Amino acid sequence: MVDWTDDRIAALSDQDLKNLLVNAERKSATEIILQCQAELEKRDAAKPRKAAKPRTEIKEFEHDVSAQLAAVGKEMAEKYDLSEETAKARSADVKGFRAHKLLDSKGYAKLGGMQRDGSVAIERYISYRRGNDTVYLGVFLKKDAPLEDQEFHVIAPGALLNGGKPVAEIRPTATEKQKQPADSGLAFKDLPDAAAAFDAALAKITA
Questions:
Q1: What value does the mean pLDDT take over residues 173-178?
Q2: Ramachandran angles phi, psi of 114, nearest 5°
Q3: Positive/negative CA dihedral, 85, 205, 164, 154
Q4: Rounded CA gap, 44 and 33, in Å?
Q5: How many Å apart are CA 136 and CA 181, to the nearest integer?
């Protein structure tokens, strides 16, 4: 019978080591199983790890602004009742009503349909729906556009948005399917200004 010392096990190739482990498990050779597992763990730890790819400037911006939009959403949720339960209760007369989740499952702004289908570089947003009305705040960057061209869009029914323009005017590349379900919108260069307009629209929809 072979005397499986630590040195002898360490000298085995990866495949031979795995084969020995299988045989040891079949024979319930506990000591050899532990030696093989220890050597495998040692080899795994010594393997170089693939470094995570650094985020591009645009992805870094998208990540940061998603967190900023989420912070606005959380602030609004403390100010107004934006719960799904209340939205459903106040929308009982709308057939097939589906409440909007304010944020995504990780607590960031949601991924917009235009970014999802690749027609724009960035579309991240937060939104609230009550009845047939939706109030939306998002960041928008056209495909292949420089980062400084980003805009913040607030989209809501005209009755909830002061000075709103047709959605097609602020998003000329959007198809009918891609447009948000509201008839007016505003475009801003700064998030605080957009957040103020979003706040004002939420005040009306939750009144």
A1: 77
A2: -70, -30
A3: negative
A4: 16
A5: 10
| Contacts (Cβ under 8 Å, ≥6 apart) of 164 | 156, 158, 183, 184, 185, 186
Would the pTM of this model clear 0.90, i.e. be above it?
Answer: no
Buried b (16+ CB within 10 A) or exposed e, 16-52: ebeebbeebeeeebeebbebbeebeeeeeeeeeeeee
Give yes or no for a contact between 69 and 191, defined as CB atoms under 8 angstroms apart. yes
Question: Hey, what are 85's tokens?
Answer: 């339960």
122 vs 153: CA distance, rounded Å: 12
Strands 133-142 and 151-156 come out as antiparallel
pLDDT at residue 47, rounded to an integer:
79
91: number of Cβ within 10 Å: 17
The pLDDT score that the predictor gives to residue 179 is 66
Tell the residue number behind the tokens 């349909």, with chain if given: 113
Cβ–Cβ < 8 Å for 201, 170: no
Collapsed DSSP state (helix, strand, coil) of residue 78: helix
The SS3 assignment for 135 reads strand
